[in-house]
Amino acid sequence: MAAIELHGVVKRFGPITAVDGLDLEVPAGICLGLLGPNGAGKSTTMRMLTGQARANEGSISVLGHDLPAEAKEARALMGVVPQLDNLDVDVTVEDNLAVFARLYRVRDVKAAVDFGLELARLTGRRRDAVDQLSGGMRRRLLLARGLVHDPQLLLLDEPTVGLDPQIRTELWSLIDSLRTRGKTILMSTHYIEEAERLADEVALMAHGKIISRGKPSDLVAQHAGRETAEVYAPPARLAEVRANAEAQGLRVRPAGPAIAIVGSEKADNGAVPPDAIRRAASLEDVFVLLTGEEAE
Amino acid sequence: MRRLEPAAIGGVMSREVANFRTFWKATTFSSILEPIVYLLAFGLGLGATLVNRVDGLSYVEYVGTGMVATAVVFSSAFPAMFGTFVKERFQRTYDAILAAPVDVEELVTAEMLWIGLRASVYGCFPLIVSFVFGLDPAPGMLLVPLFCFFTSLIFSAFGIAVAASVAKIDQFNYVTTLIITPLFLVAGTFFPINQLPEGVQVASEANPLHHLVELVRHASFGFKGTDLLRVAFLIVVALAMWRVAVNRMEKRLID
Q: Could you give the ipTM of this predicted complex?
C-alpha cells in the first residue's frame, strides 16, 4: 500500500480549477518531489492531504485513511511543514514545540521537546522567544515542530521558499537526514535544484495534473537527452539559431537571455553554432520543455 | 477519531496560555485600572452630583456591580474578534493547528473556553475594586465567575463568528458601533433601563449583558426566582452562538 494515494482528484475554487484530475501515488520510504511552476496546484494538493481543503471529485487516502472522513486520523500520523513561517513568535522555542507535542497527543511531552530541540539544533536556545532567533533557526524550528511526534510521513510545502542560499543548503541537509532515516516525504517545490538534490523521484505538475514522473536522471534522459547547448547572442541572431535548430527537429527553449538547444548531441553540423556552450542536460531543461515556463 | 477530544482542546488552550504568559501584565493592568477609572468618573462625577440612589442602591454599588458586564464584554468580544482575525489572517496560526489532529470544532471550542476562563476572572475585578469604594462582599458573589463564564462564551463565540465573516479588520468598527456599544450601554450598567421606552425594555430582555448585570446585582443584594431563567437563557444563547462560530470558522478555514 502506498503512503499517499490520490485518484482523479479535482479541486475548484469558483471558476478556477486548481487541481484537475490528479493521480498520484507516493510509495512508503521515498522522498517524492512535487515539482511545478507557481499556480500548478501543489499547495492545494498539500492542503487536501491534511483535510484543510476538500476535493470536489476523486479519492484521497493517506496511510490507509480515506479523506476527508478520516483526515484527523491521517493528520495524527503525519508531520506538516508549512510554506510560511507560522511559529508563535513571542513564545519560547520549547513552548512552541510543547504545544505541538500536545496537539499530536505525545505522551512524554518533555522528551518530544528535547527531541525537537536536538533535531533543530536549538537546545541552547530553548528558553529564547522565537523572535530572537535568526531566519535559519526559525526554519529549523518550523521543521522540528512538524516532527515532534516522530511521524512516518512528512509533508513539506515549499520548504525553502524565499530563503537565502546558505539557509537553504542547511535545510537541505536536515531534510536529507530525514530521508535517510526512512521517512516518507512528499515535498512540493518550484526550485529545480531542490527537487534534484533531495527527491528520489520527481512528479512534474502543471495545470493541476502530473505531466511526467520518474527519477530525475530518467526524466532527463527521456525528455531532454544527454546534452544541451546554450547560445548567448543578440535577439536577431538567437531567432536565426532557433529557426535553424528547429528545422532539424531539435527542441529549443528560452533560458533567460539565452536559448537552449535541448538534445544537442543529436544535432547535425551547423545546428549548434560553434560558440554555444555545451553542458549535460538537466532537470531544468525537462521542466521548461514540459511546463512551458521558465524555471527559477 | 471522536469529536471534541479533550486532548485536542487542551492542546489548543495550552497554546493560548503560553502566549498569554507573554502579555498578561498589560491585560491585567488595564482590567484592574478600567473599573477604577469608571468608578471614579461616574461615582464621583454623576454619583456625587446628579444621582444619589438608583433602584435603592448607592451609585457606587450600582455601577460597581453593573461594570462586571462591561469587563466581561471587553475581555471576550474584542480578544475574540481581533485575536481570531490576527491568528487566522496574519499569523496563520490556525493553518498550523489544523495540520495537526485538531478539527475546527475543537479549535473554536478551545478558544471560547480559554476566553471564558479569562473573562470569569477579569469579570470579578470591578467587584473587587468596588469593595474599596464601599461595596459590601456577599456570599452570592461567589457565583459571579460562573455567570461571567456563560456570558463570556456568548461574546467570545460572537467575536469568533464575526472575525470569520469579515473580509478586513476595519469592518470590526461596524460591529462595535452597531452591536457591542448599544448592548453595553443599555444593559443597565450605568442607568436603569426601566425608564427607557417600552420597546427598548422589551428588546433588552434579549441582551445577555442585561441578564448578567441583573444576576450580579442579585448575587450581591439577594437572588430572585427568575434568576434561574436568566442563567438558562445565557446557557442557551452560548450554545447557539457556539454552533454559529464553529460553522463560520469551518467556512473560513476549510477550502
A: 0.91
